[in-house]
Design a protein that fits this description.
2 domains; Aldehyde Dehydrogenase, Chain A, domain 2; globular; alpha/beta; single chain; 15 helices; 489 residues; seven-stranded mixed beta sheet; Aldehyde Dehydrogenase, Chain A, domain 1
Length: 489
Amino acid sequence: MTTTEYPDTDVLHDRLLIGGDWVTGSSATTHEHIYPANGRPNATITLAGPDEVDQAVRSAREAQREWVALPVGRRRDIMVDLADAVHDHVDQLGRLSVHDFAVPMRTAPGHAMLAEGFIRYYAGHVDKAHGQVSEVSGKHDLNIIDREPYGVVGIIAPWNGPMVVVGLNVAPALAAGNAVILKPSELSPFSALRFGEICLEAGLPPGLVNVLPAGPDGGQSLVSHRGIGKIHFTGGGATARKVIVAAAANLTPVATELGGKSANIIFADADLDQAAILSAWQGPLGQSGQSCACGSRILVQEDVFDEFLQRFLTVISAAKIGDPFDPDVMVGPVVSEPAMNRILGVIDDAVESRHGTLTTGGARIGGDLGDGYYIEPTVFTDVDARSPLATEEIFGPVVSVTRFRDEDDAIAIANDTEYGLNTYVQTMNLPRAHRVARALQSGSVWINRNSDISPQGPYGGYKKSGNGRSGGIEGLHEFQQIKNTRIGL
């Protein structure tokens, strides 16, 4: 199948969106985008460099002044219109997400639906934002505490979920009164660029949302620009350190949502059929394990270890792997050839070093899928707790299944990590669910369910999984700064 046979190739934008205009020239290089399912080029992407970042910041400043000058009711209505427009384009944005990083069409529209839900939720906050009035000790002054926008914020999206970041970060940034420069990865620019176009169609001021695909150099220019009021970065820890260092030159605040090495705890009293399905989907199957929410460390109480493992492997073996545009396909490829080679290297090293027992998978898939970057869903058992397999984020379809004795043992193993983004608990014992949730060092705990981010719930990490929150009023506050005004009476 050639790329021209795929749907929506006519809207695989290869340009930058700055100030409401499409920009084709660039001070940076270009990037040949490869479709991961067949290893063939999709488009040659224009990447932003310092000149384009500077142009976008100037455009965003002007648009932000226009945005905050509008009556709050008008801003609310425009954001509702934007949510409606995203709703009308959910299927197209889903297909573009498939083009972006080959997430299966079975789940890809859910990314755009999530964005719609967050935009609609935060639209409701636009005309309800309020500060405080506080007494001042020993005075009769009026003490006013307000929340105000930063102005222009830079939002850096990871390749594995640009539309998710639109919901989690772009929506509250706009609701708070900011303009946005959205930098999608050069590996997945298409859905973000189409979203920027939809913003214009929905009536947002030109320049309020600029979309600049960029590589490391463009990202460096964005985070170090003096006109940026705040950066929100979603991605890996190594890149986050570089972002924080670059932003520090201007003392620009940075919020982060980083990686995870999430534990999934299966107690003996769990519904094992449900636990097997949840563990497979939240582990090696969903997005081929390429998710910060991946439950890659499956901890099973020893009483039911063998029974659970059998059911878990049965679920994995039944999952259809193939063309992401096939609606029956559950598992697609990994994002790129370098990513595939890195993941296969982790698997080979674990086998050679005897860090665990390879129970299923472990190889690249050939045959009709041989031109794509497909890896078999891979399960290790008897994993060395100190090995890279157990401690490092793999970001691929690789999980470990480990025994634990009792509740205390499970908590100790789950917390024995530098990360703290998500933890999953499978149990039918309500008091245990509460006890364990309180003891876990994790920003989110999901009991008897998968990770299902909602607009009402703050999402973010402990420890090296980040320092910000997305969702809820906490997510809105990430994009507001506090002003204290005191009036002598």
